[in-house]
């Protein structure tokens, strides 16, 4: 098992660890996610039917309705939010959604995180220190 | 982030705890964005009407209006007493039609709770426009006006068509802006970020509302959240066409601003749209792309058969002329048994439709003129609905996923035909 470290900018502080869930497709919040289960429901999305609850979600960022933050806010209240969020494209939907989800969140990485992280990897997100530690191959 | 003395005073509680929590959220949000400062705004559109599904969670039940606003609209752990809003503030589309709540399947108890929440917003000075199209009913920002609006289809409209400056805000940031008159100065508030980046070369005539919905859905899917300019537009699209175009582009992608040289507010020419720079990407839109976009929009209907249970018109909310068009198409005909035709328009336009006799004509033909909500926002359908049809690329993008149904997209003429016959007649593209 190998370990690698990526550095980035803290969007929401905190520290969390979990199994990575990676998609190269942007995620629609309202109408694209069922906040009660933490699952992606968008038709034709590669994660359709998959839940991000408790996982470290790596994705390009947010798209779609302005209900993005309200959806992820609901996920927090319902206990289905991701453990942490890593994303590459900053938008107002993404920033506000990350803030109200209150899970550690990071962006602006020194390495392409999509090259470094695959679904199933064990990932420690230390947003306060601006550091992501990836253990390949999972547990 | 640099805060002014006034910002800091608000943050420190000089204007009361609710304003303090609002400023705290704006600071956390601004820092997350990497914004350097906040900007004044006196035009805020948000969404603060709550029903049971917003208030009940496995480990938490929200029991008062102040608690709902504190948690859901300000992201505040502390329950604060919410004062009158300081900014010009409007309520967007909400969960319930004030007239046809029974058609939505709501109980009297559920109706009363939502009406009570609405009344709380009203008492706090939030104008109850209750539409996704505030720009149809009196909130028409001017060029350069800093706004803080939710509702992606409305934001893209005011940015592009009117030249207002708004990012796509969310419930919590608009809640905070209503109380502080401030919003992060980032993204589209900065004129330097408003130039086109991508060129879409339109090689088929965009004429009908259907054409503009298809074009918008294609544009959003290829440019994602960048800023497109269109080339090859030979007609002048009206409000309805631009409403459908923007709503589609902000559903398939994250388009918040587009330019149509010679038509939209900030681009007299293509050169002006791009600020003199070269397009970074160029996409072509021809007959093949148009056909593929139509097929993508109808993809959830695979294997659905021809039966249509619900026809939904009015996403974004229909104009008076669109309401009249449905009346005309229905003239001398009736909606088929077992099929429903729902037309959605702002309540202010419904009042006008009442006066014009359109509401009555629709009812006589077995259709309903609804307001304040839509099936996707309110999450309701007639019992037993399996397949819906709509003239809106946005509604067919969202509703099947939200409600677990199959969806068809077509022109308003095709949709009304489907309502009258109960079957999808197909579309001559």
Q: Which key features would you list for this structure?
A:
heterodimer, A: 139 residues, alpha/beta, Glucose Oxidase, domain 1, 8-stranded mixed β-sheet, two-stranded parallel ribbon, 3 helices, 18% helix, globular, B: 429 residues, Aconitase, domain 3, 3 domains, 5-stranded parallel β-sheet, 3-stranded parallel β-sheet, 17 helices, 15 strands, 13% strand
How would you portray this structure in words?
The complex is a heterodimer of chains A (139) and B (429). With 139 residues, chain A is α/β, with parallel strands linked by helices. Chain A has a single domain, classed as Phosphohistidine domain (Glucose Oxidase, domain 1, 3-Layer(bba) Sandwich). In chain A, 18% of the residues lie in helices and 33% in strands. Chain A is built from 3 helices and 12 strands. In chain A, the strands form 3 sheets. An 8-stranded mixed sheet of chain A has the order 1-12-11-3-7-9-10-2. By secondary structure, chain B is α/β, with parallel strands linked by helices. Chain B has 3 domains: 187 residues, no CATH class; 102 residues, no CATH class; 122 residues, 2-Layer Sandwich (Aconitase, domain 3), CATH 3.30.499.10. Chain B is built from 17 helices and 15 strands. In chain B, strand 11, helix 12 and strand 12 form a beta-alpha-beta unit. The model of chain B has no long low-confidence stretch (mean pLDDT 97). Chains A and B meet through strand 2, strand 8, helix 1 and helix 2 of A and helix 2, helix 7 and helix 16 of B.
């Amino acid at each position: 098992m190998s370990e690698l470290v990526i550095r980035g900018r803290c969007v929401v502080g905190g520290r969390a660890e979990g199994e990575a869930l990676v998609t190269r497709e942007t995620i629609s919040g309202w109408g694209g996610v069922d906040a009660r289960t933490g699952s992606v429901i968008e038709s034709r999305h590669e994660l359709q039917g998959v839940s991000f609850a408790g996982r470290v979600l790596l994705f390009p960022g947010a798209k779609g309705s302005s209900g993005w933050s309200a959806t992820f806010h609901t996920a927090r209240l319902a206990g289905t939010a991701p453990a942490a969020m890593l994303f590459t494209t900053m938008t107002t939907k993404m920033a506000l959604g990350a803030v109200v989800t209150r899970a550690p969140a990071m962006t602006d990485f020194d390495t392409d995180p999509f090259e470094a992280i695959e679904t199933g990897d064990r990932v420690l997100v230390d947003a306060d220190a601006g550091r992501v530690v990836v253990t390949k191959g999972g547990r | 982030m640099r805060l002014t003395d006034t910002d800091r005073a608000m943050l420190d509680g000089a204007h009361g705890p609710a304003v303090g929590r609002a400023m705290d959220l704006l600071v956390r949000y601004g820092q997350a964005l990497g914004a350097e400062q906040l900007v004044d705004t006196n035009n805020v559109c948000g969404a603060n009407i709550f029903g049971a599904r917003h208030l009940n969670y496995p480990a938490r039940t929200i029991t008062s209006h102040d608690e709902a606003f504190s948690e859901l609209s300000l992201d505040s752990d502390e329950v604060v007493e919410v004062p009158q809003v300081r900014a010009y503030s409007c309520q967007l589309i909400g969960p319930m039609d004030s007239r046809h709540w029974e058609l939505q399947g709501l109980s009297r108890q559920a109706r009363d709770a939502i009406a009570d929440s609405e009344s709380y917003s009203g008492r706090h000075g939030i104008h109850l426009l209750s539409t996704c199209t505030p720009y149809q009913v009196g909130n028409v920002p001017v060029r350069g006006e800093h706004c803080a609006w939710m509702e992606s289809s409305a934001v893209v409209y005011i940015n592009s068509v009117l030249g207002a400056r708004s990012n796509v805000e969310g419930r919590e940031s608009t809640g905070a802006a209503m109380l502080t008159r401030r919003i992060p100065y980032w993204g589209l508030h900065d004129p330097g970020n408003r130039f086109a980046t991508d060129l879409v070369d339109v090689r088929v005539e965009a004429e009908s509302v259907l054409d503009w919905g298809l074009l918008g859905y294609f544009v959003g899917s290829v440019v994602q959240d960048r800023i497109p300019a269109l080339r090859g537009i030979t007609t002048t699209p009206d409000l309805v066409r631009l409403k459908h175009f923007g709503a589609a582009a902000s559903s398939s992608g994250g388009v918040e601003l587009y330019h149509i040289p010679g038509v939209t507010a900030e681009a007299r020419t293509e050169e002006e749209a791009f600020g003199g720079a070269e397009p970074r990407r160029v996409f072509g839109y021809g007959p093949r792309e148009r056909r593929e976009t139509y097929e993508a929009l109808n993809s959830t209907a695979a294997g659905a058969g021809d039966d249509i249970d619900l026809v939904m018109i009015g996403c974004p909310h229909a104009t008076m002329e669109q309401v009249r068009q449905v009346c005309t198409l229905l003239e001398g005909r009736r909606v088929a048994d077992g099929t429903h035709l729902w037309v959605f328009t702002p309540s202010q336009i419904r009042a006008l439709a009442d006066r014009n006799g359109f509401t009555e004509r629709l009812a006589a033909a077995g259709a309903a003129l609804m307001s304040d909500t839509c099936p996707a926002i309110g999450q309701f359908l007639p019992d037993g609905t399996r397949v819906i049809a709509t003239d809106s690329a946005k509604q067919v993008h969202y509703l099947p996923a939200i409600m677990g149904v199959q969806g068809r997209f077509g022109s308003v003429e095709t949709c009304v035909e489907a309502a009258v016959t109960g079957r999808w007649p197909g579309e001559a593209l």
